[in-house]
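Dear colleagues,

As part of the handover before I leave the project, I'm documenting each prediction I ran so the next person doesn't have to rerun anything. This entry is a single chain, and its sequence is reproduced below.
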Amino acid sequence: MRVKDYRDLIVWQKAMDLVEQIYKLTRLFPREEQYGLTVQVRKAAVSVPSNIAEGQGRRTTKEFLQFLSIASGSLKEVQTHVMIAQRLGYLSEEQTSQAMNLAEEVGRLHSGLVASLEAKIRLKPPHHPPSTIHYPLVPPHARPRR
């Protein structure tokens, strides 16, 4: 079954849930972090579903995989920022656990999608451009006269 729209992807839907959760959590951060950690974690969170959507809209599976790779990096960044926020005392253990659990779910779904797309590439026969027909050169003296 071909996905016609990125919004049909469960990984995208869960990544959107993660964005919502991150925005709610970052409202709890101190005001002094408004232009620091808050911006960083929000930007990374938004990057996850955005790159999934952009990749799905590309022309080839390889391009989609490239954008999924970027989304994966952003997801790891979100997880790191959440752990930093806990270490700094901005998030409780429970808040951190909830965010990390959702991020891990997104990661599992992401890995499944990547594996599926990689299998699709392996099964697809390689594309070869139409071959060029080469005619033997006929020496000028052997060409018919007009």
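The chain has a mean pLDDT of 90. Residues 29 and 90 are 6 Å apart (CA to CA).

All the best with the project,
I.
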